[in-house]
Amino acid sequence: MAAMGGATPSPSNPYANPELFRFVGSMEGVPDWVDPAETPAERAARSGWRARGHALLEMGGQLLPGLVLASTLALFGRQLADWMGPAVFGLEDSPVSPILIAILVGLLVRNTVGLPAVYEVGLQLCLKRLLRIGVALLGIRLSLGAVGSIGLTALPIIVACIATALLLVTLAGRALGLPYRLGLLVAVGTAICGNTAIVATAPIIGASEDETSYAVGTITVFGLLALVLYPFLGHALLGDDPVRAGLFLGTAIHDTAQVAGAGLLYAQQYGAPEALDTATVTKLVRNLFMVGVIPLMAVLARRQAGAAQTKSPRLLDLVPLFVFGFVAMAALRTIGDLGEEPFGGLLTAQAWKEAIGTVAQLSAWCLTIAMASVGLGTHLKRLRGLGLRPLAVGLVAAIVVGAVSATLLRVF
Fold it and tell me: Residue 10's beta-bridge partner residues?
C-alpha cells in the first residue's frame, strides 16, 4: 500500500497505480464537465425562443412542488374516503367527504411539520387560479334557466343576510371599539364575498395593510370553521333538502372558495349534487351585490374621514372574473342542450353528455385541490396576532348571518 502514496506505476502490481484510485474516487461514468448548474454567462447568452423555453422551465420548477403537494393531498383524501366506506363503516359509499380529509390533512401538515418555502408559489396558484377555474367550470352543470331560477329563489334571503350583516357587524365593531375602516372591511367581507370583497374595498376606503390583513384573517378563520361545520349543521337544521341546504351555505358562509368547498363537501357527504349547484349560484348572485355595496362603503368612509374618495372602483374590482366564466359555461350548456343534436350535429348526444361529466369532474378536482391548499395555507398560530376584538366581531358576524339564513329558510 505504500506504493499508493505517489510511487510510479508498477507493471507487476496494478493496484499501486495512483491514477486508478483517483478515478475510483470520482463519480464513475460521469464526466467531470457535466454540471446541472448554469453559469451567469450561459443564462445571459440565451435569447428568443431559447430564453422563453428557459423561463417556462423555471416557472415549472417554481409551481410544481406546491401543485403536486396539493394534488397529492386531494388524491389521498379521495382514496382514504373510498377505503373508509366499506372498511370502517361497512357502507358502499363513504360517509366521510374527500374534501374534508384533504383540508384536515393540509391543516395537520402546516401546523406540525410546517411548510417549506419551495411550496408557496404552487399553492398560491391553487388558491388564486385553480379555485377560480373550478368555480367557473361549475357552470357547465346548469343551464341559464336553472341559474336564473335559483338566483331568483335565493334573492330575498341574500338581501336579508346582506342587510343584517352590514348593519349588525358595523354596530358590533363600534361597540367593541374596532377601528372604523376595519369594521367596514369585516362587514363587507361577511355580507358579500369574503376576502375578494375585502381586497376590493380596502383601497377604495383607504384602509391600511394591517387593517386589510386583520379583516382577511378574521373572515378566513370563521369561514374555514363554517366550511367544515355548516354542511352538517345545514343538514341537521333543514332536513334532507339539498336545495335549502345549498341556499343556507351560499348565504351563511363568507368567501366564494369556502362556499364552493362546503357545497362540494355536502354533495359528497350526502350524495346531493343539487346542494353544490344551489350554493354556487347563490354565492355568485351574492357577489354581484359588490357593485352596489363597495361604492356605499366608499361613501361611508369618506363621510367618516371628511376626505374625498382616493380611488374609483373598476368593474373587475366589483365583479370577479370567475362570475363571467360561470355564466359563460352555463350559456354553453344552454346552447348545447338545444335540440336533439348538440351544436347543430357537431357532437352526438352521448358525446355531449360525456363532455359535461368530464368538465364537472375536472371542476370537482380543481376545487378539492384548492381546498387542500386552504388547509396547507392556514397557520393557526397566526390567529393570535389578530387580537380579541376583530375575532369577537367576526364571531358575531358568523353567528348572526348564519342564524338569519337558517331562520328564513325554516320559516319560509
Answer: 13
